[in-house]
Amino acid sequence: MPDFDPTCLFCRIAVGEIPSDTVLATDEVVVFRDVNPRAPTHLLAIPRRHIPSVAEVTDADAALLSALFAALRTAAGQAGLPGYRIVSNVGPEAGQSVFHLHFHLLGGRPMEWPPG
Ligand code: AMP
Question: Which residues lie across from 45 on neighbouring strands?
Answer without folding.
Answer: 31, 103
